[in-house]
Design a protein that fits this description.
- The protein has 183 residues and is of the alpha+beta class.
- A five-stranded antiparallel β-sheet has the order 6-7-8-9-10.
- Strand 2 and strand 3 form a beta hairpin.
- The chain is globular and about 40 Å long.
- The protein starts with 6 loop residues before the first strand and ends with a strand.
């Protein structure tokens, strides 16, 4: 066991409603009980092969960038096929000895499909049009599921759910990056 304190932080949420998907992520990176950075950008817009994709990540930043690069390569090989690229990435992540050590999770969407990709080989399509990952992911997910009972647009649901998560989870802050995408 190492005495080095673990890195924590981030909450990413995706909400699909009214013909658009909104992905929002906070900016907090913590080391033990210390906030190292409050304005990290963990939601990114990609355009491999000319097809826009929005991705959010939780976990190790270097690991997440490695996975995003791999996802972009998969999408360039299969333009416009997010589901296929996601499954191919999950297979590689599960079977490749180098990738198996990566500690991150991804939420990806092209506005039509929405997936959570994990290192366990999972490509999960969320129920109820809401997905969340990261330290405050369960708080944001619960809040968003409740807010989906209202008539709020996707961005408002995501922002309010993130505000609730930030009030509860010490590893989540209110400094948001928000990206919208439509099919």
């Amino acid at each position: 066991m190492s005495d080095f304190p673990g890195w924590h932080g981030t909450t990413i949420i995706a909400v699909r409603r009214g013909g658009e998907v909104v992905v929002a992520g906070d900016g907090q990176v913590s080391l033990g009980q210390t906030v190292i950075k409050g304005s990290a950008r963990k939601v990114r817009r990609l355009s491999p092969g000319g097809y826009p994709v929005v991705a959010g990540f939780a976990g190790s930043t270097a690991d997440a960038f490695t996975l995003l690069e791999r996802l972009e390569a998969k999408l360039e090989a299969t333009p416009g096929q997010l589901a296929r690229a996601s499954v191919d990435l999950a297979k590689d992540w599960r079977t490749d000895k180098y990738l198996q050590k990566l500690e991150a999770m991804l939420i990806v969407t092209d506005g039509r499909d929405l997936f959570v990709i994990t290192g366990a080989g999972d490509v999960l399509e969320p129920e109820h049009d809401v997905a969340a990952i990261g330290s405050g992911g369960n708080f944001a997910l619960a809040a968003a599921r409740g807010l989906m009972e209202t008539d709020l647009p996707a961005e408002d649901v995501a922002r309010r759910a993130m505000a609730i998560a930030a009030d509860i989870c010490v590893y989540t802050n209110g400094n948001l990056t928000v990206e919208k995408i439509t099919p």
